[in-house]
Write a structure and sequence with these properties.
The chain contains 7 helices and 4 strands, in the order ββββααααααα. It is mostly helical.
Length: 246
């Protein structure tokens, strides 16, 4: 009986390819390891998760930056003609909030959790500085009262602040939860609170229209107190004392 030569075994569904000059097949798909020294792992057709995370993070940061920059620009134009301290406090805070996109964006570009945590600290510092500046302007206006003008435009600037911050908060919170980023979540939470802060500008315009010009710097001080509260809440999130952090 002639010898029967068994056909060379080739796994079903295998994908033949070469590694370091040796051709072979795999009976499986996706990530796998090879015994060639040194052993290594690779995958076919997949995008590294850190790259996807950094790209998504940068998109979130840039979108929120655009929203808050537009909000601050509108409020700055109204402040020039209205001179409201309450609006100035909100404007300073919104402008500072928009600038926090710089360290956050850099952290995502670097794909570094440590840089991201440092960016969260920078966010908190920016909120604190905006509160101090707003409080000083409010105190100066109480000492030297000056009623704001163009009250209709002032009210609309407050509405702009409410809508801009609410939209930025939605973008940041959604991105922060999706990317598991305490820095983005902290920024989103305080942007959500800023929507309520901006409502103080609307209240100021109404109070001045009713004949209470001193209400404007007083509301400016209330806004300052709210910003300080937001600062504390954001610090708890960034430092990992509230919710979960890294």
């Amino acid at each position: 009986m002639p010898d029967v030569v068994a056909p060379a075994y080739e796994p079903l569904g295998g994908d033949r390819h070469r590694h370091q000059g040796r051709e072979h097949a795999h009976p499986h798909l996706g990530p796998h390891r090879h015994g060639v020294h040194p052993p290594h792992a690779h995958s076919h057709g997949l995008v590294d998760e850190s790259i996807k995370r950094s790209r998504d993070g940068v998109r979130v940061v840039l979108l929120s930056l655009a929203i808050l920059a537009l909000t601050a620009a509108v409020q700055a134009a109204v402040y020039i003609v209205a001179g409201s301290v309450a609006l100035l406090a909100d404007l300073i805070h919104n402008a500072g909030d928009a600038l926090t996109a710089v360290p956050l964006g850099a952290a995502f570009v670097l794909r570094s959790r440590r840089a991201e945590q440092a960016a969260g600290v920078a966010v908190v510092a920016a909120i604190l500085l905006s509160a101090v500046a707003a409080g000083l302007f409010a105190l100066l206006r109480i000492v030297s009262p000056l009623a704001p003008t163009h009250l209709l435009a002032l009210g609309l600037a407050g509405v702009t602040g409410v809508l801009g911050n609410a939209l930025a908060a939605r973008v940041r919170l959604a991105g922060g939860r999706r990317l598991d980023s305490p820095a983005l979540i902290a920024d989103g939470n305080h942007a959500r609170s800023d929507a309520l802060v901006s409502a103080g500008v609307i209240l100021s315009a109404a109070a001045v229209a009713l004949g209470a010009p001193l209400a404007d710097p007083i509301i400016g001080l209330i806004i300052t107190a709210l910003i300080l509260r937001i600062t504390w809440q954001s610090w708890q999130t960034v430092s990992g004392r509230h919710g979960h952090g890294h």
